[in-house]
Write a structure and sequence with these properties.
single chain; 130 residues; alpha+beta; Herpes Virus-1; 2 domains; four-stranded antiparallel beta sheet; two-stranded antiparallel sheet; 3 helices; 8 strands; Znf_RING; Znf_RING/FYVE/PHD; RING-type domain-containing protein
Amino acid sequence: MALAIECTICMECFDPSKIDKVACGSSVDHMVCFKCEGDWRDKMPLKHGIRRMTCPTCRQEELYLYRTTESLQREVRRTLRKTYESLKREPSSTEAAQIAEEMAQAAQIARDIRCREHAASSAAHPISMV
């Protein structure tokens, strides 16, 4: 039986396959469950189209997040779900601009997923958040 790991945000225990490690440079691993990771990412501000990520535990700027193929696919689904919900009704010009930005983000995530084709396995692959 695998050891359960506690999410540093919601404090619930998860199987190691359902949690991501934040690479903030801390000497202690800060682990975040998939749901908290998605909520946390959505709250980070965009600067020139790039999210400046900080660790939700220590607030240090995140160097990168170990991303698995599954983690990237979850982010694509989450982004597309939001876009789909927005398209169910007629968007305002501001919403249309936001949808275009979200679609660009989804395209970048899809490119990141294709990056795994160059790796030997679908193991964790650090992606720069610069």
